[in-house]
Amino acid sequence: MKILVTGGAGYLGSTICYALEDNGHTPIVLDMSKASGNEIQDRRFYQGDISDKKLIEHIFSQHGDIKIVIHCAERSAVSASVVKPYEFYSSNVVKSMELFKNLRDAGCKKIIFASSASIYDDVPGFMVTERSPVNPRSPFARTKFISEMILKDFCDAYGMKCIALRYFNPIGADPKSRCGFNGKSFKNIIGNLLRIFEGELSSFVISGNDWGTRDGTCMRDYVHIWDVALANVKAVENFDTAFEKTDDENKNFLVLNIGSGIGVTVMEFIFAFENITGEKIKIVYGDRRPGDIGGSYANALLAEKTIGWKAEHTVEDAIIDAIRWEETKDNALRK
Length: 335
Description:
This protein is of the alpha/beta class and 335 residues long. It is 40% helix and 19% strand. 45% of the residues are buried.
């Protein structure tokens, strides 16, 4: 099956493409960035804006057998969205809405949307289901929630169908080291820990130690990027039947949590990294970040019920794969 993957040259998108190929599918990549190396390999690649109607028409004129679009092109990072909200709303909402319209006009009415668990409100015990209350507290989170609402309205009005995958905290790299993140540009927990491991940073700043968790540090559901990629494969392969396996009356818009189902605090993650690397991490406590939340982790039973997916990898697996990618990525990207 042919699948158009927006943002297919990025960290998430390139991993999804490999997972699709490993399972016999053909990804077509659309990305704003100029791709190179293992980010695209021999895939058909189109560089351009997701809101460019003529480009979408051109892609579908050449690949009229595209059945589903996986939309993961986005601006990410909660803290950056607080200081640059315009850029986030423009990219994640306005351009996405144009993409959805252009896909409808091109006759493609099946979308898998990369959403985010950052839209959830705090709940007692931190475990959230798809029916848990939402309270997006950053521009980034609000762009994801607004995009979900736009898609739901499009599905109701235009005969489209969408599976919105609410990712928790993807980390790690392809277990075969074919693609991964750029550790020097990623400011997430694993990126910063790797910079300390490589001697580029002297300490790890924990943003607040007064959250209502086991040790006072934020709790997250860290899910291996390969598990996230496989969730997209499962959503592709079970797209038509997934809507019939839910008790929800809505049969054209489905929300699924994509997480490991395990809550891990920042301190616990650091301990896991220390155990794997043998490196003692110097910790500094800082202020809470704007737009941050105490934490949540996924109840992902609905994803297992509807698309047959559940996470298989551990936090330790993700750390090991991330370290392996960091050590081998220069050679991989030159292939």
